[in-house]
TrEMBL record:
Name this protein carries in UniProt: FAD synthase
Pathways per UniProt: Cofactor biosynthesis; FAD biosynthesis; FAD from FMN: step 1/1
Record key words, sorted: ATP-binding, FAD, Flavoprotein, FMN, Nucleotide-binding, Nucleotidyltransferase, Transferase
A GO molecular-function annotation: FMN adenylyltransferase activity
Annotated source species: Halobacillus mangrovi
Enzyme class, first EC level, given as a word: transferase
One GO biological process term: FMN biosynthetic process
Residue ranges constituting the FAD synthetase domain according to the UniProt record: 15-169
E.C. number(s) listed in UniProt: 2.7.7.2
Pfam families: FAD_syn
Enzymatic reactions: FMN + ATP + H(+) = FAD + diphosphate
InterPro entries: Cyt_trans-like, FAD_synthase, Riboflavin_kinase, Rossmann-like_a/b/a_fold
Length: 291
């Protein structure tokens, strides 16, 4: 997969060197099952039409630039992690747009002309709620109009599991309330972080990208692995911990000093020592009533 960073105004050289493609659009934080449906839909169309598969995403979440609602600066999948998942899904080109105030002000028709037609999109795929252009005035009903017949459009319908829309917002809610054991249902895999492990015996330090979205404070059962290593242990996370660093205690003593490209998998919530009554594992008021 080739990753192509884009700054506004988009360079003519990038447009001229772009290959005919089916373009999947979205921020794709988590690349959850709903996102995977969008990408797999685009992949099938690309195969049928003999085109390359491309994804366009943003380097920053739009909320960090547009002052509306909560600002998202921590991610289920930071960009490097997201790119790895895209590659596994068979994406050929990843366009990463630097989302600035100037980009936020691009009119919807201009976005289509410069960023979709300009990158040789022959078909565009996005979720039913995708919006583009200044103040989100472009949507999946407007896109066929803005395309002016220059590319086809496929809208992917809402994806649900257990009568809930699968979304990054849902995943962040589950993570922030400690319900990590529910994540595979919607993400298609456990919640994981990529990083580096250093230590010996039964204790190690896991260093990772501090922009990962952290679970609620508490103690968790976790798994650490890479291509040659697999071990279970416990990790206690507190809100006062240094960003990007966790201590893990393994259930058995291990012989290692350092592990590159390790993955920390959050398996189960064990205990909430801060006794947060709003913790999703159970409202303490309900627990008191049942005792």
């Amino acid at each position: 997969m080739i990753t192509i960073p884009i700054k506004h105004p988009i360079a003519r050289s990038i447009q001229e060197n772009s290959q005919s493609c089916v373009m999947a659009l979205g921020f794709f934080d988590g690349v959850h099952l709903g996102h995977q449906k969008i990408i797999r839909t685009a992949k099938k169309i690309a195969k049928d039409k003999g085109l390359k598969l491309a994804v366009m995403t943003f380097a920053q979440h739009p909320s960090s630039v547009i002052p509306k609602g909560p600002t998202i600066t921590n991610f289920i999948t930071p960009l490097s992690e997201k790119a790895e998942v895209f590659e596994q899904l068979g994406v050929n080109f990843l366009y990463v747009v630097d989302f600035t105030k100037e980009v936020a002000k691009i009119p919807h028709q201009q976005f289509v002309d410069q960023y979709l037609c300009g990158l040789n999109s022959k078909h565009v795929v996005a979720g039913f709620d995708y919006k583009y252009g200044f103040k989100g005035k472009g949507d999946m009903n407007q896109l066929p109009i803005d395309s002016e017949g220059r590319f086809g459009v496929t809208t992917v319908s809402k994806f649900e599991k257990h009568e809930q829309k699968v979304s990054s917002t849902l995943l962040r809610s589950l993570i922030s309330t400690g319900r990590v054991e529910e994540i595979p249902t919607y993400l298609g895999r456990s919640y994981e972080m990529t990083g580096e492990v250093k230590g010996k015996g039964s204790t190690c330090t896991f260093s990772f990208d501090p922009t990962y979205y952290m679970p609620s404070p508490g103690q968790y059962e976790v798994t650490v692995n890479n291509s040659k290593f697999h071990a279970k242990g416990m990790c206690e996370f507190k809100s006062i911990h240094r960003p990007g660093q966790l201590t893990i205690t393994f259930f058995d003593e291990l012989l290692f000093k350092e592990l590159k490209d390790a993955r920390l998998q959050w398996n189960n919530f064990i205990a909430d020592f801060e006794m947060d009554a709003l913790h999703a594992q159970g409202d303490l008021r309900e627990l008191e009533m049942s005792m």
